[in-house]
Design brief:
- The chain has 249 residues and is of the alpha/beta class.
- The chain has a single domain, classed as Carbamate kinase (3-Layer(aba) Sandwich).
- Helix content is 39%, strand content 25%.
- The two termini are 28 Å apart.
- It catalyses: N-acetyl-L-glutamate + ATP = N-acetyl-L-glutamyl 5-phosphate + ADP.
Length: 249
């Protein structure tokens, strides 16, 4: 069976319910390999505010100074990831926390160092680092950090990280968890969308705000080999499933 990539938020209590773990177990029982990518923005902001460090957002991205990068690393690898791996292990799952330095797993480059600081975009994912963990029947829990070719750490977007990983491992499904059950149009949660329909909904301003970058990441994943992307607030529900447009011969 194929691989399923799940992107969860950093607030574990919001995502990791009993029904979440039941779904993971069902997937594993059916022979699927599971990969989890986690965020952590809430806790990064909380820590920066506690240390009286200003939080600046430009074009939807957190401006990441050298100081902010250290806090981001500390929170993601030292707080959020261990919390999530522990919760999985308490439910009987074998997990390993991975990050950019794990066998050069996530490589990236600066987006605009002058404007955004140490914010990067992913240029390459080393699938062997992930496959090695899956081969041993572990669930990799991956932090959204990248590293340049010279070894500089970068803050990268968690949705983008999940999408790039899904592309590289040839995932059959990608779940992007958010705080709503999917994409809404005229009061109805949509069950299915094609890429072409997504573009129409963006033009009609049905898809707006923070959903746009999430949807854009989903489209990139679909165009690079992922079979389907689910936008949902819990993995037990399919949410809005986005697929490549059906082409009939």
């Amino acid at each position: 069976m194929g691989k399923i990539v799940v992107k969860i938020g950093g607030v574990a209590s919001d995502n990791l319910t009993q029904s979440f773990f039941q779904q993971i177990e069902e997937w594993q029982t059916a022979g699927h390999e599971i990969i989890v990518v986690h965020g952590g923005g809430y806790y990064i902001t909380e820590m920066m505010e506690r240390l009286n460090i200003p939080v600046t957002i430009k074009e939807g991205l957190r401006v990441t100074t050298e100081q902010a990068l250290k806090i981001t690393q500390m929170v993601l690898i030292g707080q959020v990831q261990p919390t999530i791996t522990t919760l999985f292990q308490q439910q009987g799952f074998a997990t390993i926390g991975l990050n950019a330095s794990s066998d050069n797993m996530i490589q990236g480059k600066f987006i605009d160092q002058e404007k955004l600081g140490y914010v990067g975009e992913i240029t390459e994912v080393n699938p062997a680092a992930i496959e090695g963990v899956l081969y041993r029947n572990y669930i990799p829990i991956i932090a959204p950090l990248g590293m340049t070719s010279s070894g500089q750490w970068l803050n990268v977007n968690a949705d983008d990280t999940a999408c790039k990983i899904a592309e590289e491992v040839g995932a059959e499904a990608l779940y992007l968890l958010t705080d709503v059950p999917g994409v809404k149009q005229a009061g109805e949660w949509l069950k299915k969308l094609s890429i072409a329909e997504v573009e129409e909904l963006k033009n009609e301003e049905v898809i707006t705000g923070g959903m746009i970058p999430k949807i854009n990441s989903a489209i990139n994943a679909l165009e690079n080999g992922v079979s389907e992307v689910h936008i949902t607030n819990c993995i037990e529900k399919a949410g809005t499933v986005i697929t490549k447009e059906e082409v009939f011969a």
